[in-house]
Amino acid sequence: MDVTLILVTLLSLALAAIMTVLAWRIAHEERRRADARVAALAAEIDRAPGGSTATIAAPGETPGPRVMSRDLPLHHPVPVVTATDLFSSSATIPASRVPRGVAAIVTVAGVIACAIVVWSLASRATRASAPASATQTATAPAAAAPLELAALTHDRDAKQLTVRGVVRNPKSGGDMRGLTAVVFVFNNSGGFITSGRTTIDELAPGSESPFAVAIPDAEDAARYRVSFRSGDAIVPHVDRRDRALAEAR
């Protein structure tokens, strides 16, 4: 497994854990604040309004000064509203906000993790394509360097035509294996007569090799053409013979 993907996975898990702890602490703090507000408001409700009460004297005691209470008469029922009923909506507001906050934090964490994964995959693809491009660049000059025809001559013996020559692989060329020299024979009108071929040994860069192609039934031969092949592919070559000798022939 790629080390980069392992690191990305561990980083994503750590980020998710941090976001979870942060969300839990936010929710816990909101609940603590809500409980404190409810307790404070309940204490305010339990405190008597105005601080006045009615005092009833016991038998044999002199009644003290009568203090009028500001409480409502008992025969008028007053609906009892508890602190829980009054402040239930305000206590539930933080609880409704917490899931939205947690969802937002988890979404942000997921987006960051996906961005890190995409970035790592893109970097990996770039690193994988770089060696291939470097290899193609390095092999291009070797493939473009053609073979060199250093010498070429022919002999006639009755109906047989024998073509001899020397082929050279330049130092900037590639290693040639299974190289074949092919000779095409034509008559005076340019029509094709016959052909012949011979296999050349392995031709390393900077080396050269002679070749000879014997072609029977070539009594009508007026000219010929030499080419080189590797399998079914034509291998390009250039004529490096002495120009004066080539024109004389």
Describe the protein's architecture and organization.
The chain has 249 residues and is of the alpha+beta class. It has two domains: 3-141; 147-248, Immunoglobulin-like. 45% of the residues lie in helices and 24% in strands. The chain has three helices and eight strands. It has helices at 3-46, 83-144, 243-248; strands spanning 147-157, 160-168, 179-186, 192-200, 208-215, 223-230, 233-235, 237-239. The chain has a four-stranded mixed sheet with strand order 5-2-1-8, with no helix packed on it. A hairpin with a 2-residue loop joins β1 (147-157) and β2. The protein is rod-shaped, with a radius of gyration of 51 Å. Mean pLDDT is 74; it is low at 51-57, 88-93 and 137-142.
Major beta sheet, strand line-up: 5-2-1-8
Number of helices: 3
Mean pLDDT: 74
Residues in helix, %: 40-55%
Short description:
The chain contains 3 helices and 8 strands. It is an alpha+beta fold. It has 2 domains: 3-141; 147-248, Immunoglobulin-like (Sandwich).
Keywords:
four-stranded mixed sheet; Immunoglobulin-like; 24% strand; 249 residues; 8 strands; alpha+beta; 2 domains
